[in-house]
């Protein structure tokens, strides 16, 4: 079926590209120093006898100390990029990069388009738009620069330590280690390619009786989630921590979490996108799926099988079809013309993309492979890809989001930017400079504000009051920090904690 301009519930509202008079009158404050930066330190790679290191699972020649079902598999993009470089013992393949890639893929990360030694993972990830900093989060990749480097998967984050699991080339062992924050072997960087967060609890932040609260939907249902939720198609949809697609809704006066993956036999790896009574999501094999009910039963139509195009990232309906980035970094428009087809907008414009597309008002916004914000649209019968970063001098990371008075995105310094037209020219107002608050992840606007996670894991509401921008701290008001991107929906703001 063809889709009208139905906006993605998680990140899209109607965009009016107009001058935001209030913002233009705000005096810019000095730029705020970014908390997100690649470190070039060379801390020692932790060993079982290192200071501040506790062995949780003894070095094992097999895979007893690792998680996520890892067994040195040569599967998917991790196998294609790292299996050939692994060493081998009687149990199978061993390589720190193979294991880290495997865990990221299991969390839903599509092929990032690069492979390298562990000592280059920080810079390669950062150049692709990922957050790299010195803040551990469950699901992040701990990285060391010493020698050829090392990467490990962060399993636990505590006030005094982290726990990591890893594999090792040459020594052919897997381990689980607890590393104190005071240890000289503390990681040089943490790479945030597909974090799952500390607890995976889905929270609804809202005001009740004049005070902010953070209702714990995961506690109410017993289901922890990964990624970002979305509202539509009869409930609130999210991917749980086992890769199952869940529909949260109220039945009989209480919340329930229907398992659509169990009903169809299809596990998912991306964030769901409801639209027009169906739910679009990327499955664990990078196939784009349409979940819907037919004749009283759930089914999961395989659009990738129908078109021969696998996808990376999350899809978005709008602008004459369904938009997604394929596994080769091409922007695709899926639509029905006698049968499903997958028009290649990147081939038509010569511009590859690296982020998730965001359709709005007949155009498609997306981050390109060079961290430039692009607007894809048809002019005089031909596709073009206007370069908004070139027009403003501001590169972005993460995904843009249309909101009140413009288009919002995080720039490469962790600043929240508002792109809008003033006096016939595009500008990029620096909301972080105006408020002193840097952000991580992608913003989520609602009708009168912009929600984002700051660099301390606090949920922030950016809005204009009395002619000036402010950044209300909802986490301080509720005592609940967050570890994922917030999603502004009717009834409140949802985020994982």
Describe the structure.
- The chain is mostly beta strands and 497 residues long.
- It folds into 2 domains: 21-34 and 197-496, Regulator of chromosome condensation 1/beta-lactamase-inhibitor protein II (Methylamine Dehydrogenase, Chain H); 53-187, Alpha-Beta Complex (endopeptidase fold (from Nostoc punctiforme)).
- The protein contains 11 helices and 37 strands.
- The strands form 9 sheets. The chain has a 7-stranded antiparallel beta sheet with strand order 1-8-7-6-5-9-4. It has a 4-stranded antiparallel beta sheet with strand order 11-10-37-36. It has a 4-stranded antiparallel beta sheet with strand order 12-13-14-15.
- Helix 2 (76-82) packs antiparallel against helix 3.
- The longest helix is centred in the first third of the chain and has 11 residues, at 96-106.
- It is globular and about 60 Å long.
């Amino acid at each position: 079926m063809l889709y009208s301009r139905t906006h993605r519930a998680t990140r899209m509202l109607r965009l009016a590209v107009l001058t935001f008079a209030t913002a233009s009158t705000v005096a810019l404050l000095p730029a705020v120093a970014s908390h997100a930066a690649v470190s070039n330190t060379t801390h020692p790679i932790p060993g079982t006898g290192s200071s501040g290191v506790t062995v949780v699972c003894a070095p094992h020649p097999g895979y007893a100390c690792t998680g996520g079902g890892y067994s040195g598999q040569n599967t998917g993009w991790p196998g294609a990029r790292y299996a050939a470089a692994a060493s081998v013992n009687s149990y199978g393949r061993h390589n720190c990069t193979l294991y880290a890639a495997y865990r990221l893929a299991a969390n839903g990360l599509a092929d990032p388009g690069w492979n390298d030694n562990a000592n280059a993972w920080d810079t390669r990830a950062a150049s692709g738009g990922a957050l790299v900093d010195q803040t551990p989060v469950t699901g992040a990749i701990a990285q060391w620069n010493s020698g050829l480097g090392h990467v490990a998967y962060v399993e636990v984050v505590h006030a005094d330590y982290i726990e990591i699991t890893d594999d090792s080339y040459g020594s052919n062992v897997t381990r689980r280690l607890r590393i104190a924050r005071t240890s000289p072997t503390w990681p040089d960087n943490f790479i945030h390619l597909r974090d799952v967060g500390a607890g995976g609890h889905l929270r609804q932040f809202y005001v009740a009786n004049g005070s902010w609260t953070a209702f714990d939907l995961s506690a109410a249902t017993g289901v922890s989630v990964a990624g970002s939720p979305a509202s539509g198609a009869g409930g609130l949809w999210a991917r749980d921590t086992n890769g199952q697609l869940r529909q949260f809704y109220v039945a009989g006066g209480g919340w329930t979490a229907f398992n659509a993956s169990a009903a169809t036999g299809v596990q998912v790896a991306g964030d769901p996108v409801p639209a027009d009574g169906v739910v679009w999501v990327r499955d664990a094999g990078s196939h784009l799926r349409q979940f819907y009910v037919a004749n009283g039963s759930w089914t999961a139509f395989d659009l990738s099988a129908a078109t021969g195009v696998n996808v990376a990232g999350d899809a978005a309906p709008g602008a004459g079809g369904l938009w997604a980035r394929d596994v080769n970094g091409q922007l695709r428009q899926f639509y029905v013309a006698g049968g499903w087809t997958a028009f290649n907008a990147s081939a038509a414009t010569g511009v590859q993309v690296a982020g998730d597309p965001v359709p709005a008002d007949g155009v498609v916004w997306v981050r390109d492979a060079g961290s430039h914000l692009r607007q894809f649209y048809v002019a005089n019968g031909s596709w073009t890809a206007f370069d908004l970063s070139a027009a403003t001098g501001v590169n972005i990371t993460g995904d843009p989001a249309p909101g009140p008075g413009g288009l919002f995105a995080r720039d490469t310094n962790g600043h929240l930017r508002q792109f809008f037209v003033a006096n016939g020219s595009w500008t990029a107002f620096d909301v972080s400079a105006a408020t002193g608050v840097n952000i991580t992840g992608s913003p989520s606007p609602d009708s009168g504000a912009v929600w984002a996670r700051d660099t301390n894991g606090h949920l922030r509401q950016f809005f204009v009051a009395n002619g000036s921008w402010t950044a209300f701290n909802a986490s301080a008001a509720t005592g609940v920090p967050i570890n994922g991107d917030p999603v502004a929906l009717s009834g409140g703001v949802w985020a994982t904690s």
